[in-house]
Specification:
The structure holds 2 protein chains of 2 kinds.
Chain A lengths: L6 H5 L5 H22 L18 H35 L1 H16 L6 H11 L5 H28 L3 H9 L4 H36 E4 L2 E4 L3 H10 L3 H30 L16 H8 L2 H23 L12 H30 L1 H37 L2 H16 L6 H11 L3 H27 L2 H9 L4 H35 L1 E4 L2 E4 L3 H11 L2 H32 L4
Antiparallel strand pairs in A: 1-2, 3-4
Chain B lengths: L5 E13 L6 E13 L3 E5 L6 H8 L7 E6 L2 E2 L7 E4 L11 H11 L4 H14 L15 H13 L5 E5 L7 H16 L7 E6 L2 H7 L2 E6 L4 E7 L11 H15 L33 H12 L5 E3 H8 L3 H13 L3 E4 L2 E4 L1 H8 L2 H15 L1 H12 L4 E3 H9 L4 H17 L3 E4 L4 E4 L1 H4 L1
Helix pairs in contact in B: 2-3, 2-4, 3-4, 6-7, 8-10, 8-11, 11-12, 12-13, 14-15
Classes of the chains: A mainly alpha, B alpha/beta.
């Protein structure tokens, strides 16, 4: 099935088709960005001048474009942040000791929870312009994707093969040369995959952050998320369906035109020195490599880029000095300072919370946290029971797996809040309490990680082992117990961590849902944060976020990390 | 090159790494003195754990010595040594750069302009016979070709001394033979891009084939045991009697850590004087029991149970690093004796190799208890406990006192393998506990 010409046939055109396509494509892209960019500078003076959202297909295209532009700006910021933060953390022992635990905690903070804080902050930063809201939304997407990417980059930097490091030192590469020739390339594949997954998760946050009520004030930012919100308040089924279709098309377009070409290109950064077996193909990438224009442009820029490289290399000469060992004395002082700062911070937060809401509230919120924990646990168990058998069945069937894996990946990146209205209607119609219903809502986004990883896990079980199990007649539960569960365990743990993190985050919008004037609420930590945010109750927002972070960090440490170790030691295939 | 000059000199260099939990230090290299002169090929030969790679890296300025210093052209080294270029065992090529870009890497770091860089790189690529592969990526090349790129990358810098860290050991036999021969030809033709070569290897034949001087390192701690001059005409004929004699001689030296290496400087490593120390100080050779019995079964088929070690190594396609621990194990257990490059089975060894599996376990157990004190010590500890069991940490801690963490764990793993085979004790990996075996509790 080849819809698009192969590079070979394309190459037959002298300066032809591919080049024209590339030139036109570039022009169209620039025009779209310019058009979308204009909208961000609209005046905004709450409460008098507010941007509005019109339901209508012709506007929907524009709104989807606006949301997508936000996604890409956030991705750009995340990439820059990742490169800087990851580089510093990997190259300075002292910085590493603060930066990595900090990253661990930031990763667990519910993004939607502190949207209220950032919205007020950014609006104050850009008075009289929509840029403040715009920035707050971008910031929300940024925080949802950046920690993962930074971790991946840091990990790659830490695992650059030792002999390559030695070669770089011995051949006197400057800091800049080492960065662009060794460190970034060796991290590229991991970083790209992570960015792609995080980007998929970002759709959820862009839609959730475009229409948000903070401090009793509805903020609306033109985009597909606010379009959706408007459709919900107007109970407009038609518009809802259109938004769904628009979202689907956009996710596919971004995948085809952005991620696939990048992934195809990144194959050359594979560290194993043998050609890889299954290469991801991308027709866009094929066109780009066939066209001469990109090469010509690159060639004409060579003298310039050479010059830049020389200057940056001169600025980062390799140090001739041996690394001095740190004296244990200054080490102790450094440690004590760290602990002191940490202690003061915790004391300050505790003081703020206790002096405003009291100790009793803390216990109440802890109780709510357990309610939400119960929901997350339920979700994980049910998602596992339902999706692992299906995932394993798919994974054992290579043809099916190749076909379905991108579909599942798409489902995972599809923002679950688009489905919420349908589910809400269903709950209202059949009188289902949101206490149970919210589990389903949270699962809408989280379950796919379990399915996705079950497929991957099943695929990783060697055929030999499967044939052996058949040969000796393992059947049913025995087969699961001896072969499948141990075989997919590592993959399941990865899926479980991601699903549980996603579910906690989703609880903030899943425990309060509305359809028109009907609003359903479930008791839990998520709804607590949402209510506090609506009322602008700062101490309660802080308390809610702190407790939720505590839950997520605690469960990661006590539960998931243990499972990870078990997976590494015992069930490593 | 009429007059020889000293290019690199190593003065009283020692290197030690801290042991885990602040239990002192583990000495990898001790009191090393060494010079590399212009116009010579020097081989550093030693078994694994002799610190030969560490020494090479200290001389390259990649890691600092704990004591002593390295002079390059008379100047003390501080940071990486810019007078040398290295060829790595794993090639260390950047997979995302083409052959030419990889070769240009060092020149680019020196700030050489693009045109000049290209010209020099192409010349070096030509020299190693990779003409036409300039724009290929490493993953498209075979192992031998990859290492050629590694050589070109080093050649293009025209270093004073070319360092090679086991450059042929990741290649298959034929490829490494071929490449080694070509490097030798280049050297003999007097057109070599560096003034000297320092090669680290564990392959004795390779050392004798290439080097003018072989420096033999002893293990635990790494010291220079001897400095053997190779006075054979280049290029060397492997089948000549002199070549074979020298190889045999070095094999004997390496299988017997206590004998003196005769030639110029002679230092004897003295391991017999410290018997009173803890049994945990003596490293077990890292070899599985199956390896020992496999070897013995091969030798028992030979006439009089005697085999020539170099021939044996060639027949088994095993490098010194793989073969010597097996020989060590056999000797330690009293199954064989090593002399003059030959291995000869003892009576017990012959019995062990030919009897049934059950009886061979009995023999093994008896020999282990008689000749390897650590097993008596472990058994005693287990017997003292009422339930006859002890956690693994306890023993690991004892090894930790004398070895770095990774080595302590390898020692432990070897001891477990031997103990299980001899049915002395059992080990439960999930509980991480040792149990006295039923046989021993009665």
């Amino acid at each position: 099935m080849k819809t698009f010409p192969t590079p070979e046939t394309l190459r037959r055109f002298p300066f032809g088709l591919a080049d024209i396509v590339v030139i036109l494509g570039t022009l169209v892209l620039l025009a779209i960005i310019a058009k979308l960019g204009q909208g961000t500078l609209v005046t905004f003076r709450p409460p008098d001048v507010l941007p509005t959202v019109d339901l209508g297909v012709e506007n929907l295209v524009y709104y989807t474009g606006r949301s997508t532009l936000r996604m890409f700006i956030a991705l750009f910021c995340s990439t820059v942040f990742t490169l800087v933060y990851g580089y510093i953390a990997a190259n300075s022992v002292k910085a590493e000791r603060i930066m990595i635990p900090l990253l661990d905690i930031l990763q667990s903070v519910p993004v939607l929870g502190f949207l209220s804080i950032t919205v007020t902050g950014f609006i104050a930063l850009f008075p009289g312009s929509l840029l403040g809201l715009e920035a707050a939304s971008i910031f929300a997407i940024f925080t949802s994707q950046v920690w993962n990417m930074t971790f991946s980059f840091y990990q790659s930097l830490k695992t650059v093969p030792k002999e390559l490091q030695e070669a770089a030192v011995l051949y006197q590469l400057s800091g800049w040369q080492k960065f662009v020739k060794l460190e970034v390339p060796s991290a590229t594949i991991g970083l790209l995959w992570n960015a792609m997954m995080s980007f998929g998760g970002g759709w959820f946050f862009v839609t959730a952050s475009e229409a948000i009520s903070v401090l009793n004030q509805e903020y609306t930012l033109p985009g597909i998320g606010s379009y959706l919100a408007m459709a919900i308040t107007q109970e407009n089924m038609m518009a809802l369906g259109e938004a769904l279709v628009a979202m689907t098309i956009m996710i596919i377009l971004v995948d085809q035109f952005f991620w696939r070409p990048l992934i195809a290109w990144s194959d050359k950064f594979r560290l194993e020195q043998s050609a890889s077996v299954n290469v991801i193909e991308s027709w866009v990438y094929d066109i780009l490599t066939t066209a001469r224009i990109p090469t010509l442009v690159a060639q004409s820029l060579t003298p310039f880029s050479d010059r830049v490289n020389e200057i940056l290399s001169a600025l980062s000469k390799p140090s001739k000095q041996d690394k001095k060992t740190v004296s244990s004395n200054s080490e102790t002082i450094y440690n004590i300072t760290l602990w002191l700062i940490l202690g003061i911070l915790i004391a300050l937060i505790l003081h703020f919370i206790i002096s405003t809401v009291g100790i009793g509230e803390i216990f109440r919120v802890l109780g709510l946290g357990f309610l939400t924990l119960l929901r997350v646990t339920f979700l994980l168990i049910f998602a596992t029971l339902i999706w692992t058998p299906i995932g394993v069945a798919i994974g054992f069937n290579p043809k099916l797996a190749n076909f379905l894996q991108p579909v599942v990946q798409f489902l995972a990146s599809f923002p679950a809040n688009f489905i919420f209205p349908f589910a809400t209607l269903f709950f209202i119609r059949f009188n289902i309490s949101l206490g149970w219903g919210s589990i389903l809502l949270m699962a809408l986004g989280a379950q796919w990680y379990i399915l996705f990883n079950s497929i991957a896990g099943a695929q990783s079980i060697p055929t030999d082992l499967r044939e052996m199990s058949q040969d000796i007649g393992l059947k049913g539960w025995q087969r699961w117990q001896k072969l499948i569960i141990p075989g997919i365990f590592s993959a399941w743990v990865t899926g479980g961590v991601t699903a549980s993190g996603g579910a906690w985050n989703a609880s903030i919008i899943a425990e309060v849902v509305s359809w028109g004037s009907n609003t359903l609420v479930a008791e839990g930590l998520g709804s607590y944060i949402t209510k506090a945010t609506e009322m602008g109750d700062w101490p309660r927002i802080a308390l809610g976020i702190a407790i939720m972070s505590l839950f997520v960090v605690g469960i990661n440490r006590l539960f998931w990390r243990k499972l990870y170790q078990l997976a590494e030691e015992k069930y490593h295939l | 090159m009429t007059q020889t000059e000293t290019l690199i000199s190593v003065e009283k260099v020692s290197k030690s790494f801290p042991l885990p939990d602040g239990k002192g230090e583990f000495t990898v290299l001790k009191d090393i003195n060494l010079t590399i002169n212009s116009g010579e090929v020097v081989a550093l030969l030693g078994r694994s754990g002799s610190g030969k790679s560490t020494l090479l890296r200290i001389m390259a300025g990649l890691i600092p010595p704990s004591q002593g210093r390295v002079l390059s052209n008379g100047v003390p080294l501080n940071g990486s040594n810019s007078d040398v270029a290295m060829v790595f065992q794993s090639f260390a090529l950047l997979p995302w750069l083409t052959v030419q870009e990889n070769v240009e890497l060092g020149l680019e770091a020196q700030g050489v302009k693009r045109a000049e860089r290209g010209r020099k790189a192409l010349k070096a690529i030509d020299l190693v016979g990779l003409d036409g592969f300039e724009s290929a990526y490493p993953k498209e090349l075979s192992g031998g070709m990859k290492q050629r790129v590694g050589f070109a990358r080093a050649f293009v810098l025209q270093p004073q001394v070319l360092f090679m860290d086991e450059p042929f050991s990741a290649l298959d036999v034929l490829t490494s033979e071929n490449l080694r021969g070509e490097i030798d030809d280049l050297w003999n033709a007097q057109t070599f891009p560096s003034q000297s070569i320092l090669i680290v290897t564990h392959n004795i034949e390779e050392a004798v084939f290439l080097a003018d001087r072989i420096i033999i390192l002893g293990s635990n701690p790494g010291i220079i045991r001897g400095d053997v001059k190779v006075d054979l005409p280049r290029s060397r004929d492997r089948n000549s009697e002199e070549f074979k004699d020298l190889v045999n001689y070095i094999y004997t030296a390496m299988t017997n850590p206590q004998i003196e290496v005769m030639d110029q400087k002679t230092i004897t490593s003295d391991t017999t004087s410290s018997i009173t120390e803890s049994p945990y100080t003596y490293p077990l050779p890292h070899v599985r029991v199956g390896g020992i019995s496999g070897l013995l079964e091969l030798i028992v088929e030979q006439k009089d149970g005697i085999d020539d070690i170099p021939i044996l190594a060639e027949r088994l396609q095993l490098a010194v690093d793989d073969l010597l621990p097996i020989l060590d194990g056999a000797v330690l257990l009293g199954f064989a004796e090593v002399a003059d490059g030959d291995i000869k089975l003892t009576d017990i060894g012959e019995d062990f190799a030919t009897t049934t599996i059950l009886r061979s376990k009995d023999i093994f157990r008896q020999q282990v208890l008689k000749r390897v004190p650590i097993f008596n010590s472990i058994l005693q500890t287990l017997r003292e406990k009422r339930n006859g069991s002890m956690r693994a940490d306890f023993f690991l801690d004892l090894w930790d006192d004398y070895f770095p963490k990774a080595e302590a764990e390898r020692q432990f793993a070897t001891a477990i393998d031997w103990g299980r085979y001899g049915e002395l004790f059992e080990y439960d990996a999930s509980e991480e506990r040792l149990y006295l075996s039923e046989l021993q509790t009665q």
